[in-house]
Amino acid sequence: MDYIKIFSPATVANVSCGFDTLGFAIANLGDEMTFVKTPTKRVDITEITGAELPYDINSNAAGVVVQKMLKDAKADFGIQITMHKGFFPGSGLGSSAASSAGAAFGVNKLLGNKFSDLELVKYAMLGEEVACNSKVADNVAAAIYGGFVLVRSYNPLDIVKLPTPKKLRLVAIHPQIQIRTEDARKVLPDQINLKDAITQWANVGGLIAGLYTKDYKLIGNSLEDIIVEPHRKKLIPHFNKVKNAALNAGALGAGISGSGPTIFALCESDEIAENVSVAIEKSYRNVGMDFEIYSSKINRKGIKILHSY
Amino acid sequence: MDYIKIFSPATVANVSCGFDTLGFAIANLGDEMTFVKTPTKRVDITEITGAELPYDINSNAAGVVVQKMLKDAKADFGIQITMHKGFFPGSGLGSSAASSAGAAFGVNKLLGNKFSDLELVKYAMLGEEVACNSKVADNVAAAIYGGFVLVRSYNPLDIVKLPTPKKLRLVAIHPQIQIRTEDARKVLPDQINLKDAITQWANVGGLIAGLYTKDYKLIGNSLEDIIVEPHRKKLIPHFNKVKNAALNAGALGAGISGSGPTIFALCESDEIAENVSVAIEKSYRNVGMDFEIYSSKINRKGIKILHSY
């Protein structure tokens, strides 16, 4: 393979109760990227559209991932990359993860599938480190594996692909402010109550049991975050208003996507998703801030090949 | 029904990572109890064998449960109870839970199945409160539902029955000291590191995913407790020695059963369970303390009716 064009999905990390451990991929939101083999052993980013990102391959998440993989594989070729961002960095929807995971996936195809999915997650985490100053795996794992994923352990890295009940739909609102992952981490306490932690891990258990049994009520009841959301929601204008609007319109649950500001809701049908979308829009219409609303199925298969030769 | 004789199983609560939220029932260890309808509206405990427990119905866990249920059901009869303890109070194997859950189950049969399983858990929790000064549900829920259970929420109470992979076997050692649940709670900190909590809830997620997918390796990797075990193991003589012996002999994982001192191990086959049993026994043989070793399948169906008319 000399050329590959891919779609790398946006992702929702944390999923309320599962801070730093759960994530899922979004079907109709993401980036397009192309990777072309070149005879000279260098990595170049030749085009970036849709967002302002560095062309310098040591500052760009995708650039860092591609370099490291070519080096480790002792490849005798170089790669030219183009990136077409379908959504905004700093949205909390895994923008750098889509670039990093897409890069790992694309290069691996040009290398003849040398690496496993787990290894691709490890490479993509290098991109996350460059972009967010934090080597997290939840977004990149969701992008690579598709559907819902659990980052069971970092040392050693262990990713569990979870089932994705078919009726689940995502609705999300992205208020057009930017929150840096780094800043969203600073508002979190180092210490938490054991009592609260128990509540949280019981909900993680409930959410995962709900995904396996397609128990939408259990999924909804488990979508609660009493550890991180109380701190981070202060960074997001009108968070409570949006969350309540979503729940009142029938959403199973709602919370902060990744480090925000995007607020996500999970719904049990297209019809409810439509109602939630309308309710969320109404709740934000007059607050004097631009916003985007997304409505989507869950991406079940991860990164998709659009074209290759 | 005028008479019922039941078997109420011993249970392992917490299951390493799932402090206060996970539990499972043991197949071949538990209490036998009988309940007989009497025309006079009083509750009497007429016989207790196998352990020293109060006959006073306001101090005995089973007595408290039976009284409350008869009162709520406006029953026009009384009940005579006998209790034959098959294992020791203070072992960490849910002794009071077996009595409390058994009482709730037995009375419910004499009441014509008036209450749901969830309601039985609530009644049984009253017995736990009397016996342990703590209204926990993990042991009683495991005894009533059988197999593995998740206490997803206390308010409102929400119990999720989890699957029990068929090959799983339990081995446990009960060093003959007694630890009161109350004392075991006192050694725990009120506050924990957020970082540790994340590790713990990722393992809860992994354990539950492993139970659904019969992934024994994932179950084993997830049987880790970095929050409670480091504190409580100090109360249990030679804990590390036993745990290491179990793991070296092939156990999937090992930890403290409930509030201890019993140490449990989960294994993937009868053969491994036998090896683990031998290794644990060897590790404790010369420490100068009496002990009991148990080896069992997982109880999958909860409390069992032995006889009724």
How many domains of chain A, as an integer? 2
Global Rg of chain A? 19 Å
Subunit arrangement of the protein: homodimer
Q: Tell me, what's the shape of chain A?
A: globular
CATH class of the largest domain in chain A: Alpha Beta
CATH topology of the largest domain in chain A: Ribosomal Protein S5, domain 2
> What fraction of the residues of chain A are assigned to beta strands by DSSP?
25-35%
The CA-CA distance between the termini of chain A, in Å, is: 5 Å
- The secondary structure category of chain A is alpha+beta
Order of helices and strands of chain A: EEEHEHHHEEEHEHHHHEEHEE
Average pLDDT figure of chain A? 96
Question: What portion of residues of chain A is helical?
Answer: 25-40%
DSSP E strands of chain A, number: 12
Which regions of chain A contain 5 or more consecutive residues with pLDDT less than 50? none
Pair with the most extensive interface?
A-B, 38 and 38 residues
Q: If helices are DSSP runs of H or I spanning 4 or more residues, what is the number of helices of chain A? A: 10
Largest sheet of chain A: 11 strands, mixed
Provide the CATH architecture of the largest domain in chain A: 2-Layer Sandwich
